[in-house]
């Protein structure tokens, strides 16, 4: 298959189905201009996650693109329902005859979320009908729960954090109702912001969108620029994933402007300013706007240099964003070049170290380097196993390696690492 061939298939099927570039973009989370560049081969359509997304949107089997057909769950991030799970693990299909047990367990791991369905339902219920805490609690207790939840995020305890979210949201909301102060409402917004990041990471996109909207709603009641900017970053992230990067960039620009108006006098203001500058630049890359993306990340890098106290963490943070921008633009070589001096010790939490290595794995996979991809995934698993096991898109890359490159160095070790059985909760 040539680099252009996959794009030609996409274009042919899209036209046959009567879909516009905008229609397909909405289905896959890309802009019309990005879809056009992918179809024409201007940006090589080689990334397996992207290919699977287009296959699902067009109703094609992934095998059309030379990929293993293991279902849509790992692409969409939807949990495996108990009925589907039973069909999946029963072994009744003739396709499973003679399948190597290690390979089969690996494919099952890639078939759906490994977060127990009961935990996801708990969060969905808490978002659908905001709950009251079991007992009255004040803002201090809500703040303690939020700090504990953030520690879970930092160590990538995604199952534990998913279990804790309903209680956190209920306590924060109850405390704010009682205190009715800007600071208390800021805690509510921050709790929903953390829920957005967590749900997005584990692939529960629709729930993450609801959480992001709530973060913005309660941020407005906080009257706090940092809280408002953080909520705009979270909402913008979800708009970007809905295929609306231009609108996401506009929203993030509002956050940038509000923070600049503060004079950036506190560490929290500077930290959020840097984060939202990076997020906006990354959003421009999703819109296919290479110039504004690179200008935006250069602005963030300049901001990091201007604040010496932030430089130990700020510089690696902005460099990794620059790498991700190149990756989204389809240039794995530039992404790897930008990240060549990044080291695990530059990132101070297991989640960040794991995320560094999963990002590197994406770049290597896009470039077609299975040995380096496996090494990066193993490094990520060592720092934060959930970054490989509980993120559907990353687990898909790992499963693809095991299926297509079983004899490459490190792949058998990776297969053992990701082959834990899925938790299939009883309905």
From TrEMBL:
Q: What is this protein called?
A: Helix-turn-helix domain-containing protein
* Xref: CDD domains: HTH_XRE
Species in which this protein is naturally found: Nonomuraea purpurea
Which Pfam families does this entry report, sorted A to Z? HTH_31
Q: According to the lineage, what is the superkingdom? A: Bacteria
Segments forming domain HTH cro/C1-type = 10-65
The record's Gene3D superfamilies line, in alphabetical order, gives: lambda repressor-like DNA-binding domains
InterPro entries the UniProt entry points to: Cro/C1-type_HTH (IPR001387), Lambda_DNA-bd_dom_sf (IPR010982), TPR-like_helical_dom_sf (IPR011990)
Which PROSITE patterns does the entry mention? HTH_CROC1 (PS50943)
